[in-house]
Write a structure and sequence with these properties.
Elements lengths: L10 E9 L2 E5 L6 E5 L3 H12 L3 E5 L30 E4 L3 H20 L10 H27 L5 E7 L6 H12 L4 E5 L7 H4 L5 H8 L4 E4 L2 H15 L2 E3 L4 E4 L2 E7 L6 H10 L10 E8 L6 H14 L7 E8 L6 H21 L7 E5 L4 H10 L2 E4 L9 H8 L6 E4 L5 H4 L4 E2 L5 H13 L2 H17 L2 H14 L5 H5 L1
Parallel strand pairs: 1-4, 1-6, 4-5, 6-7, 7-8, 8-11, 12-13, 12-15, 13-14, 15-16, 16-17
Antiparallel strand pairs: 2-3, 9-10, 10-11
The structure holds adenosine-5'-diphosphate-glucose (ADQ).
């Protein structure tokens, strides 16, 4: 149950994201498609809402070989994930061919927009071919969403679809939908949430299609970002690039004859689920004498992995008294492995880890344990619980969920969170030790202070961090989004009863 109230005769939620909330795989023996669950926070929070209100989910299946002829399977009987309740008619797949995948996804999304939005403009590639495919795929998603809206409207004459679009892959969709709706004289509420940072004007304007992205997003009734800085950056770009009037106090952008509501809505995690997993997880690391310093990341250059390892190396160099007393466990999940920059990062990681281990290992100890691969959530919870320090030190990050998952799992001896202020999480998790990840020497010293921090201080910091994340969990985030978008019209059921 989502805990969100719906008026079934008037509302239907349609979620649109690059990926469906599960992967579709072909069973080799039967040739039929089966669902493989993905357990991310977004899916956990949003899928129950779609199930409750009889809504729909539009997204790519994750496999270029699939086509309209493939039938979407129902969930298997053993499936207990939050998407199990999504019936096949609620799943609206978008089909991409290999060329579109390479150009739209690897090219424009991950080669252009990802680095630029993370203010790493020197890594961004500008290609008009990629951009054309980005437009085309956004159109494709818009068509599928319009189909889903039509189906939803058929379920009741007064139904107004509430469309919730996710992330940088789909920034052009809102204005395409708005245009189509006005041609059909149809109504819907359009909302968007950006999961990554929105960069400052001086960076954003490097993009050759900056105006198109702003115009695309302004098709919405409401746009959510993680933190206020990103809201301000977006409004500033609308003002300077498009000449829009903006209301900084109430977070509104005026475009055409409409007001677009902007909102800072920091995402949370399923806190209680992580805590429960930490209570049940077995002990994975046997050495009791050694304190664990933990890093958990997608292998991405924005996450500051190499800087972190170098800081750890400096720490061992400057504080040899800690040799054999700590172990650094880095868990890195492979990501975007088709993209050259990600392959290069993988090689650099192997090299730096090899060097540090070669330099400091003794007969019975190696400083770094490197796990390259996907780890189950139950195992992650065990690492989070048993770590003495978690290092969450991205160079830039929209929010960062690892910082939040770590505190949710800290149910035994309280540990310390070392956090970069360049993650959205740095805005609210003020009891963490905040440090600029580029300051290698200072990070090295901070590791030392964290290891020596008195228990009382660790306890107070961790208690406050946990209290905040428990309340501001992922359900609260989804509810806040839906409440804000409803408030842009008279659709809010609370306003009915007034
Ligand atoms: P991501 O960049 O993917 O998300 P993040 O918020 O750190 O980044 O979430 C990563 C998730 O992957 C976490 O839930 C973590 O548990 C999981 N994970 C990491 N390594 C793993 C491993 N080896 N095995 C299994 N699971 C692993 C984007 C933005 C973020 C924003 C989120 C949500 O870039 O800034 O916080 O969306 O809005």
């Amino acid at each position: 149950k989502s805990g969100i109230e719906w008026n079934p005769s008037r509302e239907r939620l349609i979620v649109v994201s690059n990926r469906l909330p599960f992967v579709l795989k072909r069973d080799e023996s039967t040739g039929k498609l089966i669902r493989k669950s993905s357990a991310g926070g977004l899916v956990t929070a949003v899928a129950p809402v779609v199930v409750d209100c009889g809504g729909r989910w539009v997204g790519w299946s994750g496999d270029c070989s699939l086509s309209v002829d493939d039938e979407i399977p129902e969930a298997s009987e053993e499936d207990t994930t939050p998407t199990a309740g999504l019936l096949k008619h609620q799943v609206v797949p978008v089909y991409l061919n290999q060329q579109q995948f390479n150009s739209y996804y690897n090219g424009c999304c991950n080669g252009t927009l990802w680095p630029l939005f993370h203010s790493m403009s020197d890594r961004a590639v500008y290609s008009s071919e990629y951009w054309q495919d980005y437009i085309q795929v956004n159109q494709l998603f818009a068509e599928k969403t319009l189909e889903a809206m039509e189906l939803s409207k058929k379920e009741g004459p007064d139904i107004v679809p509430l469309i919730w679009i996710h992330d940088y892959h789909l920034t052009l969709m809102p204005s395409i939908l708005r245009q189509a709706l006005s041609e059909k004289n149809s109504n819907a509420l359009l909302g968007f949430f950006l999961h990554i940072p929105f960069p400052p004007w001086d960076i954003f304007r490097l993009l050759p299609w900056d105006d198109e992205i702003l115009l695309g997003l302004l098709g919405c009734d409401m746009i959510g970002f993680h933190i206020e800085d990103y809201c301000i950056n977006f409004m500033d770009c609308c003002h300077r690039r498009l000449g829009c009037r903006i209301d900084r106090k109430n977070l509104l952008v005026e475009y055409g004859n409409r007001l677009v509501k902007i909102a800072a809505l920091p995402i949370g995690i399923p806190f209680d689920r992580f805590q429960r997993m930490a209570e049940e997880a077995p002990r994975l690391v046997k050495e009791k004498r050694q304190k664990i310093i933990l890093g958990v990341d997608r292998l991405d250059y924005t996450k500051g992995l190499v800087h972190r390892l170098k800081a750890f190396e400096r720490f061992l160099e400057k504080h040899p008294e800690h040799i054999e007393k700590v172990i650094f466990i880095q868990i890195a999940v492979p990501s975007r492995t088709d993209v050259k920059e990600y392959q290069e990062l993988k090689e650099e990681m192997d090299q730096v880890i090899g060097r540090i281990n070669g330099r400091f290992s003794t007969a019975n100890w190696s400083p770094i344990r490197y796990i390259y691969g996907c780890v189950s959530q139950a195992e992650l919870a065990a690492y989070y619980r048993d770590a003495f320090i978690a290092m969450v030190t991205p160079l830039r990050d929209g929010m960062n969920l690892v910082a939040k998952e770590f505190v949710a799992c800290q149910i035994e001896e309280p540990g310390v969170l070392i956090l970069s202020p360049f993650a959205g999480a740095g805005e609210t998790m003020q009891e963490a030790l905040l440090i600029n990840p580029y300051k290698i020497d200072d990070v090295a010293e901070l590791i030392c202070s964290a290891l020596e921090m008195p228990r009382d201080e660790r306890e107070v910091r961790m208690k406050n961090l946990r209290r905040r994340e428990k309340v501001n969990n992922v359900d609260a985030w989804a509810q806040a989004f839906l409440k804000t978008i409803r408030s842009t019209t008279s659709m809010d059921p609370e306003s009915d009863s007034k």
